[in-house]
Amino acid sequence: MAIKENLLSIKNSLPENVTLIAVSKTKPVADLMEAYTVGQRIFGENKIQEMTEKWEQMPKDIAWHMIGHIQSNKVKFMAPFVSLVHGVDSLKLLEEINKQALKNNRIIDCLLQIHIAEEDTKFGLNELELADLLSSETFKNLKNIKIVGLMGMATFTEDQVQIKKEFQHLKSIFDRYKNLKSEICDLKFLSMGMSGDYQLAIECGSTMVRIGSSIFGNR
Ligand SMILES: *Cc1c(COP(=O)(O)O)cnc(C)c1O
Q1: Ligand 1 center to 24 CA (angstroms)
Q2: I want to staple 212 with a disulfide (CB 3.0 to 4.6 A). Which of 23, 138, 141, 180 is the partner?
Q3: Distance from C-alpha of 49 to C-alpha of 195, rounded to nearest angstrom
Q4: Residue 39's pLDDT band (cuts 50, 70, 90)
Q5: What Å distances lie between residue 35 and 3, 23, 142, CA to CA?
């Protein structure tokens, strides 16, 4: 397995403004450490318990990104250390993250997940729900979270035209809200693109790619 080579070749191919999240879910700490030794410092996990175990075992200069769907009752386990939460798709979840961030005397950065895929299996807010959330009084009173961008996943398909359409849609939503700057909302990051579609995502304006299997091999 050539984790170091995979990582470096992907990293070197990315434009300077694009951040690479190495998605290490299901992979052992030894694999993550290989990536770490060649300079990778941002890892993405989709289960809070697994991420917490890895955080405990690994060097403390790693930024841990939670990219998966989140159960409210587990937020407390990641609140002390999580660096960015990608998959926030409800006000209720945001309130829980805010509550746990407060307990840890932190402000936790979050991305709002937008539903762009055709399948209804993928989580996320639609445009109306996004507008409602951002304009709600409850949201405006949260002091320990900050919305720093949007995240989305395209439909799982070979159809590049379809995927491109979905990425462009997310970019257009991002552009619409990016100038709406406040204490708790300042959209800087657009998290879209995985192993199979990150080049297309970057063409469509992604600034954060979440790449797993192309670095660590199939799961
Ligand atoms: C697993 C996962 C990825 C990485 O997928 P690969 O196809 O292995 O690159 C990206 N984003 C999310 C939300 C994931 O769950």
Answers
A1: 9
A2: 23
A3: 24
A4: very high
A5: 7, 11, 36
Give CA–CA dist 158/181, Å, rounded: 37
- In Å, the largest CA–CA distance within the chain is 51
Which neighbouring-strand residues pair with 112?
88, 150
Looking at this protein, which amino acid is placed at residue 198? Y
Which of left, alpha, beta for 124 (phi over 0: left; psi -120 to 50: alpha)?
Answer: left
Residue 212 has a CB neighbour count (10 Å cut-off) of 21
Distance CA 207, CA 22 (A): 14
Residue from 67, 214, 218 to probe ligand 1 pocket by mutation (most atoms less than 8 Å from CB): 67
Reduced to 3 states, what is the DSSP secondary structure of residue 161? helix
Closest C-alpha to 205, from 217, 191, 216: 191
42-85 confidence digits (pLDDT tens): 999 999 999 999 999 999 999 999 999 999 999 999 999 999 99
Distances (CA, A) of 84 to 11, 12, 67, 81, 159: 20, 23, 8, 9, 30
